[in-house]
Write a structure and sequence with these properties.
- By secondary structure, the protein is mostly helical.
- Helix content is about 55%, strand content about 0%.
- The protein contains three helices and no strands.
- The chain is globular and about 45 Å long.
- About 10% of the residues have low confidence.
- InterPro entries: HARBI1_dom.
- Its cofactor is a divalent metal cation.
- GO terms for molecular function: metal ion binding.
- Keywords: Metal-binding.
- It comes from Rhamnusium bicolor.
Length: about 120
């Protein structure tokens, strides 16, 4: 989901953007930690699998990360450029990027209507 470009001051869209920025910062930090520990998440900087599969993969990584933290397993500090096995993963059929983008805009607008009016 993307923020609104240049929303009017004090508008629901501006309130959405502020909440979006705060949430995105937190999520980006969490994703960074997971990518440091689980190299499978690094491929092409995005996973090209159906959303249901990706959500399950990320949940599994989060659970395993929490177990690692509990057991004191350190993070790897290798540079991602040291991994030549990072290759282009073909885009699966269906869920074309344009369809997903349009659906994302619909979801964003619904969120603004319900929570930021």
């Amino acid at each position: 989901m993307t923020p609104f470009q240049n929303p009017p001051e004090g508008s629901p869209q501006q309130r959405f953007n502020h909440a979006h920025i705060r949430a995105r910062n937190c999520v980006e930090r969490c994703i960074g930690v997971l990518k440091m520990r689980f190299r499978c998440l690094l491929r092409e900087r995005s996973l090209r699998y159906p959303p249901h599969f990706v959500s399950n993969l990320i949940k599994a990584c989060a659970i395993l990360h929490n177990l690692c933290v509990k057991e004191g397993v350190p993070l790897l500090n290798e540079d991602i450029h040291d991994h030549p096995d990072l290759m282009d993963v073909p885009h699966p059929p269906g869920n074309e990027p344009r369809e997903l983008a349009m659906r994302g805009l619909q979801v964003r607008n619904t969120i603004v209507e319900h929570y930021y009016q």
